[in-house]
Amino acid sequence: MSQSETDPKDGLRLRARLRYLYHGGQPAAVKFRLTVIVIDFAIIAFFLAAPILKNMGWAFYVLDYLIAALLAVDLAARAYAYSDIKDWLKRPIVWLDLFILATLLFPAWLFNLGFLRMLRLWTLLNSDFFWRTVGARFDDTRVEGIVRALSGLVTFVFVVTGFVYATFRGHDGISGYIDALYFTVATLTTTGFGDVTLPGPLGKLLSIAIMLVGITLFLRLAQALIKPHKVRFPCDRCGLQTHDPDAVHCKACGNLICIPDEG
């Protein structure tokens, strides 16, 4: 075996390269992360269409395992690029991604829990990885606040839709995924047409939860759209995190602050 095949420096070079790609600010690293984000959105689209695509038979499982391989490679690369793998494994988002990977590796057994895969949309749009990549023009702005609020609402809709489809499929009114989506949106908006209802105490409790959480998410989205924009600039005296973009003094303690004007 040659020296190049056993040289430990090769592993260090690979880790340095992965850190550069996943955390660097140079154009090449940003382009790489944009590619990863585009692939992530394609994977999320597959998760969304999975209840319908499952009727494709063996072709569905081929696509399922291909996406599992992509996700596994991405997770392994992120773990290797992280400075402390034990610390990386303590992050809840990592365990969520590992669970999603498990549903892809064992689709025949865990498919009914596949609706939780849509949580990847929320984790992606609320991650520093995403906002560092799309650029400082949107990071920590009103756009970010609106996108984060909207991601919570959209994710909730499709997670609940998947749960309703997996749990109540075959009951009166829920014969397909579209019926489950229709019920979720009608309940979420408190429209309540009543043509599609869920049976039993579980169905009633789920409907109540959808209405209560839905109102909360709508209010959060409205707040993000209407509330005056704040910039993140911690006060060095009292620690207040956000201020008006044109603030000269801290609203909490009156300390003189100097917020950089990037315009």
TrEMBL record:
Protein's cellular compartments: Membrane
Domain Potassium channel positions: 155-225
Task: Give the UniProt keywords, A-Z.
Answer: Ion channel, Ion transport, Membrane, Potassium, Potassium channel, Potassium transport, Transmembrane, Transmembrane helix, Transport
Bilayer topology term: Multi-pass membrane protein
Give the domain of life: Bacteria
Presence of keyword Transmembrane: yes
Question: GO molecular function: any one?
Answer: voltage-gated potassium channel activity
Pfam families per the record?
Answer: Ion_trans_2 (PF07885)
- GO CC annotation: what is one? membrane
Q: What is its main location?
A: membrane
Q: Where are the transmembrane segments?
A: 32-52, 58-81, 93-115, 146-168, 205-222
What PANTHER family does the record tag this protein with? CALCIUM-ACTIVATED POTASSIUM CHANNEL ALPHA CHAIN, SLOWPOKE 2, ISOFORM D
Name the chain's protein: Two pore domain potassium channel family protein
Organism per entry: Brevundimonas mediterranea
